Structures are given as structure tokens and as C-alpha cells.
Amino acid sequence: MPRSPSPSLAPAPSPPVDAYRAADSDRRRTSASAILRSVLEHGPVARSAIARLTGLSPASVTDYCGRFAELGLIREASVPRRSNGVGRPHVPVDLDGSRFVVGGVHIAVPYTTVAVLDLRGRVVAEKRLKHHGTEPAARVLANAADGLGALLADVPGRTPLSVGLATGGWVDRDSGTIVEHALLGWRDVAVREVIGARTGLPVHVDGHARALVNGERLFGRARGSRSVLHLFVGNVVDAAFATHDEVHYGPRSQAGAIAHLPLAGGTERCGCGRTGCLQAELSERTLCRRAREEGVIGGVNPMHVVAAAAGGDPVAVRLLMERARMVGRAAGLLLDVLNPDTVVVTEVGAIHREDCLGALREEVGPQRAASVLPTSFPDSVLAVAGGSVALDVLYRDPLGVRPGSN
Q1: Are the CB atoms for 345 and 337 separated by under 8 Å?
Q2: Nearest C-alpha neighbor of 208 from the set 389, 403, 13, 393
Q3: What φ, ψ does residue 188 adopt, rounded to 5°?
Q4: Residues 20-69: tens digit of each pLDDT
Q5: Could you say which of 8, 118, 135, 386 would form a disulfide bridge with 106 (CB–CB 3.0 to 4.6 Å)?
Q6: pTM more than 0.85
Q7: HSE of 289, CA atoms in CB hemisphere, 13 A
């Protein structure tokens, strides 16, 4: 009786054709991303240098650069570089800054920021639109879309590729939905659908801490870091973590929700019923309330506290320093858990005052203080947050981007 072949010797089933196609598509996307990122980081740069930087063949680099040029993403630099004076000159390529921009929208509690950014993440135009925290989401989003449209119209000769929208709270990137933003009272708001319908452009949506991680790794001080933690301390307090250029999202993009982490030494009563939750303790609302109670300011703008401190008000200085130390305590807690190479903190005191940044770093501890940096975008952090959502998509899949229209 013939024996059946050993299972270990039986031929393995061939992967389906779709699997090969998907893998090939992923490789092309990864190669295209690496090449355009090299142009972003090193341009003007010769194609031969891109090949060395990326490990791709010169033929592949030339092919992709040709596609990027056809799309209008890159151009040949006007002055060729010679190789030791021998042979044909190397004609470097660079991003083409004359053709395309992206739109950025950031929704904060008291206002919306709309902006236009170029392909290097630089803010070309920016405007702040005030709104009340109780306004319906549909009205806030309509005003944002119309404000962005007007801003784009004021930047003639540039074609918008897409719109990026960032905000705090729970944002589901895949569905383009703000699942919950407690301070605005929003739930299940289909942001991508609303903004896309009014602008006619592709819309990408993300949480602002994750957006700023991508902005830092593309255009900021964290470029080249193997792992980056971003701690955003505004009215909303949240965080994001990226390792090897990949931001961690978790199911339905819930990663980074740290509002209710307990903070040692905290005294603020949180809406959840506990005392010392991170957001209740560190929120700009708390800072401004304390400043009002101490007679420093009369409103709700944290920059007025910074201005009072700059004017020599000792109470304002004390409030900012106390907050910076608590932020440092929170950063230290996250450092213990995630151990990133770089920590970026967006917080008004650390951005505008060296003593606050020093107090924050001191709380983290001397061995890790040097890894803690303030945001790379002190004058335009919210504009960059919105635009970075769109630019991250561009640099991850440059051949998949299709120019929109005004």
C-alpha cells in the first residue's frame, strides 16, 4: 500500500495572486516614500546620493524621480553639481515649492485655526476663527471649511493637494470621525465628510498629538529619532508615541488618551470624581482659573499669563513654574513606560520661558533631561498640526496623491 507523502514534504500552497500584488504595492509605496523623504531632508540632492541614502538602485531612484517630476512634486535644481570636476555634472533634485500646498485645520476649544502649508511644512498663511464651545459641530466645521477656502484663494498660483484636520479628544483616523471631544460636547462627528463636501478636496483627520509627532519627524527636531513621544498640554492633554516612523494608534485610534492618568501631587478635582487626573491638573483652563483667582488675568487666555510673567509678575511666574514641574512629572511617568529617544512637549510655559523648560527637565531628571525638547513650531504649532496630517499622507504614499483644485 503506497504511503502518503510526509506532511513536511508536501508542497506549500502558493500565495494568492492578490497577496503578491499587495506586497509589490507596499514595496513601491515604501520606496517612493523613502526617496521623497530623502529629497525633503537633503535637497537639493543628486540622484546618486539618494540611491546611497535609501539603499535603492540608481535606476529605481531615477524612475521614481521621473514620476515625481511628472506629478510636479520635485524639480531639477538650476545649478548642477560636478563630481570632482570629472565626468558629467550631477543635476540635483529638490522639492518643487511653486506648485502645491496643503490645507490645515485645527479645532481647539475657543477657536479654530485654518492654515496653508507648503510641502516643507512651512506655514504660508494662517487665520484664527473664534467660536463658542457650545456651538454645533456642523457650524464650526462649515466656518472652518469656508475660512480655509478663503485662505487658499489668497494664495494664488498654488494648487491644494488635500486638507488635514487635527483636534484633541478621541479621533478615529480611519473613519475620519471625531468620536468624542468632551470639552466641545461633540460625539461621532463625521469630519472628513463635512469638510470634504465643502472644500471638494481629500480630507485626512487625526488627533493633534499624533499629528505633531508626524510634524516633528518630518520637519522638526525629532527628525531621525528612532522613537518619539509627544506630550500635548493645552485645554486637552494627550500624548502620542511613534517608533521607527510608525505612530501607534491602537483599536479605533484610542492610543494616547492620558487625560485620567493620576498625577502625584495633583489637587484638582476631575469630572470623573477623582483628584489629580492629568488633564484636570494641567489643562490651560486650570492654569487660567488659578491665575484669575490670584488676580493675574481676567480672562481665559493662557498667553496673558505668559505676558504677565514676562512683565515681571511674580505670581504669574510661580503659576507657570508650578505647572511646568507638574508637566515634567507627567513626562517622566510616560518616559518610564515608553522609554523613547526623544520627548517633545507642547506647553506654553516650556515654549516661551527657559526657566519653565528648565523646571520641566529638572523634574524629569538629569539623566533624561537632554531628551526633552519643546515643540519645533512655537509660533505656529496648531497650524502645523493640521497641515501635518495631510503632509504625512503625502510623504507616506506620494504616488497616491492626486492634485485637487480650489
Answers
A1: no
A2: 389
A3: 50, 55
A4: 455 678 889 999 999 999 999 999 999 999 999 999 999 999 999 999 99
A5: 386
A6: yes
A7: 9
Q: What is the DSSP letter of 169?
A: S
Q: Is 61 helix (H, G, I), strand (E, B) or coil?
A: helix
Residues 254/205, Cβ–Cβ less than 8 Å: no
Which secondary structure element, helix H or strand E, spans residue 342, and what is its range?
strand 342-346
Instruction: Give the whole-angstrom CA distance, residue 198 versus residue 143.
Output: 10
**Does the N-terminal peptide bond of residue 160 adopt cis geometry, omega within 30 degrees of 0?**
no
Cell readout for 87 is 565626468
Amino acid at 74: I
Q: Residue 315's closest CA among 299, 350, 332, 291?
A: 291
Domains for the chain: give ranges and CATH numbers.
17-95 (1.10.10.10), 100-212+383-400 (3.30.420.40), 221-375 (3.30.420.40)
At 204, list the grid cell. 485626512
Residue type, 59: A
